[in-house]
Amino acid sequence: MKKPVKVLITGAAGQIGYALAPQVARGAMLGPDQPVILHLLDIPPAAQSLEGVKMELIDAALPLLAGVLTTTDVDEATQGVEVAVMVGGFPRKAGMERKDVMAKNVSIYKSQASSLEKNAAQGVKVLVVANPANTNALILKENAPSIPAENITCLTRLDHNRALGQVAEKVGARVTEVKNVIIWGNHSSSQFPDVAHGTVGGKPIKEAIEDDEWLKGEFVSTVQQRGAVIIKMRGMSSALSAASSACDHMRDWIHGTPSGTFVSMGVFSDGSYNAPKDIVFSFPVECKGGRWSIVQGLQIDDYTAGKLKATGEELVEEKALALQCLEEQS
Ligand SMILES: NC(=O)c1ccc[n+]([C@@H]2O[C@H](COP(=O)([O-])OP(=O)(O)OC[C@H]3O[C@@H](n4cnc5c(N)ncnc54)[C@H](O)[C@@H]3O)[C@@H](O)[C@H]2O)c1
Ligand SMILES: O=C(O)C[C@H](O)C(=O)O
């Protein structure tokens, strides 16, 4: 039996936490032979609910689950964790943009960054899910200077998976046949879902679909607006798909992407593809040996360059707004 890995889930009494904890304990994130100890954090008003989640995890008799720690103390929660999935925060409600939850959420990420830096295992891999995901990840990075920037990422894999799903539905293919779509930029409605380098059953997506109007119009807006539509339909934001995509993100980061396949991750920008530097931007990445690298050399036409510019500008604005919120709170 392998040594268990300590996995932190913040906001664990919430709806994503409830969907995510059993998936991690079933091996969907770290592998089918990797035992885990879950560190579940929430705030004091959710403490009882968190205990209920722990009871259910025990009741499920999950073979890979080597322990569950529930706590409302962030320093206890971050102790020795090798993987941290940051879900805690306030979700957006119908009619709100992700920026509207900014002030509430960025301050959480500032304080939890310091705790992770102090207590997490060396080499901790961090995935920020809570919105505004890119900017929360940036604030976490700025406030945990001893954690390498490459170890702090945000979730745009849900948007990536949504794009795969839309293409598969359109052509009537299995989702596994669709590869190499890209989500560029922000996990917001300014993101650009790009199929120019993607294939379905080995054929370029553009040739398989033969409907440029759909690809430039309905496809893009469906992926961009999917989060808002789910909120309208369910009265709550996506949870099972967010949890499943968080597992995909971490699994590929740790275990690698198949040769020739890339996925989308929000990572600290080095200015590739003219994205602004010093923000967390979603790029196409390949993963190997526990590290991600941005896929280089993709041809970008003027239309796509314009979309990348717009989403990059939004992230620069979000960063300024976040810093302003933090200054006002200090
Ligand atoms: N990146 C993505 O693809 C994506 C997808 C879906 C949802 N989200 C975001 O994920 C976040 C969680 O969504 P949800 O539906 O699970 O919300 P939820 O309200 O059901 O759960 C959030 C939990 O976080 C807890 N929390 C609040 N402040 C905390 C703190 N300081 N420390 C620890 N826990 C804290 C709350 O008590 C709650 O239990 C939201 O910000 C949502 O917008 C992101
Ligand atoms: O859109 C939201 O606010 C929730 C989440 O980010 C999503 O994409 O489903």
Automatic annotation (TrEMBL):
Pfam families in alphabetical order: Ldh_1_C, Ldh_1_N
GO MF, one annotated term: L-malate dehydrogenase (NAD+) activity
EC top class, as a word: oxidoreductase
Domain named Lactate/malate dehydrogenase C-terminal: residues: 156-321
All residue ranges annotated as the Lactate/malate dehydrogenase N-terminal domain in the record: 5-152
A Gene Ontology BP annotation from the UniProt entry: malate metabolic process
UniProt-listed InterPro entries: L-lactate/malate_DH, Lactate/malate_DH_C, Lactate/malate_DH_N, Lactate_DH/Glyco_Ohase_4_C, Malate_DH_AS, Malate_DH_NAD-dep_euk, Malate_DH_type2, NAD(P)-bd_dom_sf
Keywords: NAD, Oxidoreductase, Tricarboxylic acid cycle
CDD domains: MDH_cytoplasmic_cytosolic (cd01336)
Family under the similarity heading: Belongs to the LDH/MDH superfamily. MDH type 2 family.
Protein name, per record: Malate dehydrogenase
Organism annotation: Coccomyxa viridis
Lineage of the species this protein comes from: Eukaryota, Viridiplantae, Chlorophyta, core chlorophytes, Trebouxiophyceae
